[in-house]
Amino acid sequence: MKQSVKMIVGNWKMNGLAADLAQAEAVKTALAEAPTANRVGLCFPATLIAQAAWRLKGGAVEVGGQDCHAAASGAFTGSVSAKMLKDAGASLVIVGHSERRAGFGETDADVAAKVEAALRAGLEPIVCVGETLEERDAGRAVEVVTGQVAGSLPEALRGQAFAVAYEPVWAIGTGRTPTVHQVAEMHAAIRRALVDRLGAATTPILYGGSVNPKNAAELLAVDEVGGALVGGASLKADDFLAIVRAA
User: Fold this and answer.
1) Can you give the residue range of the structural domain that contains 110?
2) Which of 116, 124, 167, 224 is catalytic?
3) Which of 70, 120, 153, 247 shows its CA 20 to 30 Å from the CA of 95?
4) What's the burial of 139, exposed, middle or buried (CB within 10 Å: 0-12/13-18/19+)?
5) pLDDT value at position 1?
6) Does the predicted TM-score (pTM) go above 0.70?
7) Is residue 164 part of a domain?
8) CB atoms within 10 A of CB 86
């Protein structure tokens, strides 16, 4: 199924100082001058969320965080809760990114708990799933990813606004991308898993993993690709806008 409205979200990761918000403001200005029917969001480091929310207020760019703690508050030094993100001005939050799963040992159960925390705070979660190169080479890609869908998406999501982002781990930041056939196969499998798990027939399934202005149009035209989760290309307004326009 092709979705007419796409969701294009940038993930700045651990990049960006206050001066770099000029790039985000440039996106806001461009979308005001030439609006798009697609949803557009940028997920900033926690240090920039309040400033970004203020500077992007009144525009078409939604503001998001990159992670949240499962608890609402407590003795978790260095962590940020979902309600803190909401208070700072965020409306979206990424959870379960492969860099969190691999680098911080997050399990499907951890991700599901963060999803529930995001929902309680009034944030729209973007739940990431994806296989490693070893898992793909072993022929287990679909099994691994649909297993992550089953384990990372709690029942609390039923009827709620959320997105799933498929990011093959081996394609993130490497410049490598799956073939169109591989993307189509995986997104179709994720849709079946979403329908089985939550009856979610229209939830957007974003593709992430080295999305750039050159490959965006081809990737976004694939069935069941409901948008993109963009990494490095979201740091520069011109590159990010090219992807938004490609949708």
Assistant:
1) 7-246
2) 167
3) 247
4) exposed
5) 66
6) yes
7) yes
8) 19
